[in-house]
Amino acid sequence: MxxxxxxxxxxxxxxxxxxxxxxxxxxxxxxxxxxFWLWAIAFAGLAALxxxxxxxxxxxxxxxxxGRTSASLVTLVQLIIPLMGLTLGALSIAGPRESGALRFLxxxxxxxxxxxxGTYLGLGAALAAATAAGFGIAGLVTVAGGVPADTASFxxxxxxxxxxxxxxxxxxxxxxxxxxxxxxxxxxxVFVWLMLVFVGDLGLMGTAAATRTPVGVLFGAALLNxxxxxxxxxxxxxxxxxxVLGPAGTYAVDALGDALVPLLLVVLSAWVVAPAALAWxxxxxxxxx
Amino acid sequence: MIVITDLTKRYGSRPVVSDFAVxxxxxxxxxxxxxxxxxxxxxxxxxxxxxxxxxxxEIDGLDAxxxxxxxxxxxxxxxxxxxxYDDMRVIELLDYSASLRGLGAGRVDEVLSTMSLGDHxxxxxxxxxxxxxxxxxIAAALLPDPPILLLxxxxxxxxxxxxxxVVRLLEDLRHDGRTMVVTSHHMEExxxxxxxxxxxxxxxxxxxxxxMDLAEELGIRAWLHLITTNxxxxxxxxxxxxxxxxxxxxxxGVLVEVSAQAxxxxxxxxxxxGIEIEDIEVWR
Lengths: 289, 284
Known about the structure:
- The structure holds 2 protein chains of 2 kinds.
- Chain A has one domain (15-284).
- By secondary structure, chain A is mainly alpha-helical.
- Chain A is 80% helix and 0% strand.
- Chain A contains 12 helices and no strands.
- Chain A has helices at residues 3-6, 16-32, 34-53, 66-99, 101-106, 112-144, 151-178, 182-211, 215-223, 226-238, 247-256, 260-285.
- The two termini of chain A are 36 Å apart.
- Chain B is α/β, with parallel strands linked by helices.
- The longest helix of chain B has 15 residues, at 160-174.
- In chain B, helix 5 runs parallel beside helix 6 (160-174).
- Chain B has helices at residues 40-47, 68-72, 90-100, 105-114, 130-142, 160-174, 187-193, 214-218, 233-242, 264-272, and strands at residues 2-11, 14-24, 29-33, 54-59, 62-63, 75-78, 148-152, 179-184, 196-201, 204-209, 221-228, 246-249, 253-259, 277-283.
- Chain B has 2 domains: 2-218, Rossmann fold (3-Layer(aba) Sandwich); 221-283, Alpha-Beta Plaits (2-Layer Sandwich), CATH 3.30.70.
- The relative contact order of chain B is 0.13.
- Chain A binds chain B through residues 7-10, 12, 17-18, 21-22, 25, 29, 32, 96, 99-101, 103-111, 288-289, and chain B through 11, 45, 48-52, 63, 66-70, 72-73, 75, 77, 79, 81-85, 87, 96-97, 99-102.
């Protein structure tokens, strides 16, 4: 036997049982945390409030009935869900690393990949629960208000919201792997949220106005922001009137037609996969514990 | 069998462990002894694959770098302090640790009973005293009945009573036939817990010896104040000087420089010479 055969690397495959155990623990811990309840209650409460305000009686921005309810929810999701995903993700690795819990977990026969996947899935499930709670309450209020609900559109927006939360969770986890302390990770998460929600949107509009940017470029730039991709995908489905989003939306409808929503879905899916994959790579190769 | 060869760990360009090597046969208890920052905890973390390193670590013939999970399945690890998972209950923490190792509730019950934690199962970790937390850490480490126990400063954050209790517990475990690696900076503790001491300083192995020889190897000396009966001081000085001791008389008796772990020799010398000793004080 040669030295090379004795020292060969034996691949240790991730075990679903371990990933499930860690995910269940993560889900339970998140659902018990004050952070989570704060977000979930804020989301569900504001969703109920917005839906009540948007009930028949007035017509805003060309929307009426259920369309107006959905538009209100989309606006709420754009603000709350990214912050929720980012903060949960940011605390997911930096926190346990700081406290020593990650060291304890990885002193078991558990690989870094299993720990990462378990954490991601557990938090993803917690975000699904929060999204479901928010949309569930909004749906109940809508039905109670006598507005005929377009269930398919409602579920579609809920699904897109969950995808957005997963994308933001991945970005948060990437921040978590790049920072040493949970404080720094939280700071990074809030900074990214501000960039995506406010600077991205306003910066894009300002740049377009000042430089007369071609509308195609404007649309392309909007797609780089997952929150914009979510908004376009959500609004495109129930009213097919992206013109309310300005020239970029009009351009998108004219140029892409039926291909628009699948394209937006691909963009959103890429945002779900890429940051999480980078976070896993960084954690897997990564830092000492 | 644990075989560590040419182990080097750097943080940036700064080495914290340099060319460290040790072999630990099955069933032996070994202490990594040294001051804070000597590199002993880093060696333990390398063994668990928690940090990257240069060199090789083989445990039961398995390379810790490439077979990390298999290696960790042989090891029970007791961290310095169980200061995390504070909101979990004792039973939840043990159940979680057991499920990560594919063990059932029956094994948790066994360990709870062995470690006398049965009365505390519903307490949250933060409600436990330092000694109980350490007992819980040891219980979690013992769940898989591992052939190897790694204990990182197991008594460092405990008060005297809790420390005695943990040391007694570890003494019992030592005789179970497991391989034990204990990091510590307490000399008295390693004397009770291990068969061999590997002393470290600035990331290097400096001394490898039996625990009883550690003080001698380190050149640590003690002064014994032997208080003799009236009129015996001069005779005591003569007897001890003749035996090669450095002796200084004072108003109550004699001060004798002795090896920190062979204090009895001076006492025995005076006893053989028929000199009565009223009291003994140890001055470091």
